[in-house]
Design brief:
The chain is α/β, with parallel strands linked by helices. It is built from nine helices and eight strands. It has a four-stranded parallel β-sheet. A two-stranded antiparallel sheet has the order 1-2. β3, α2 and β4 form a beta-alpha-beta unit. The N and C termini lie far apart (about 55 Å).
Amino acid sequence: MAWTRKLCAVIAYALKLAAVYPLESAVVREFAAGLREIVVVEEKRGFIESAIKDLIYGSGDAPVVCGKADPAGRALFRPTGELNPDVIAAGLARRLSAPRPREPVEAWQGRRRRDRIDLPVVARTPYFCSGCPHNSSTKAPPGTLTAGGTGCSTMTFFMDPKRVGDIIASTQMGGEGAQWIGMAPFVDIDHFVQNVGDGTFHHSASLALRAAVAAGVNITYKVLYNSAVAMTGGQDAVGALPVHRAGRTAAGRGRAR
């Protein structure tokens, strides 16, 4: 756990919790000492927010604690979905530019334009790492019906269809390609391409391949074999087979070239 200090219109500190349960009371109390307000940024329900209030409320100099709602009860950070950088920046800007406690509102309003907090947010579209074979393995002729899988191939959703084909909705991990079993009878296109990494394939997507073979649908699986679970840190793919054994396994399940 650590906190850093940054100077803007007000002095703001940031505390990053390495363990959220049980909450380390000494660290939280030391961090809260001398502060006027604590803004808790957490996804889903306000568990950390409630825990901090339980720790510090009751003392005479406890700061205001807010998170899911601001001190006036207005929604601040939503309790559902992902808190992306844009949402967090907007919420923090509201609190950092709010009138200070025990400060005349008239004085704050006169300074408001000068003290406004402008938080620049740079848009950066996710993309494959430099040198990753997914840069070339996901290429498809224009008009090809394709889909990404759980992991790095999901990023094809953000790419130009002229490069990666017409991407349709993804599935749960292990269902890569199985969606075509239900779709194929109802569309004019007769061929489907499914991208999947070797980590996902050996984890559970090989089951979807078995289902596609059993259903007799016309589908091409493009399995990227890079020997790593790349999107979550480059771990070894658990249960991975060498390329030649994976090929023989697929052949044994009835696949054709």
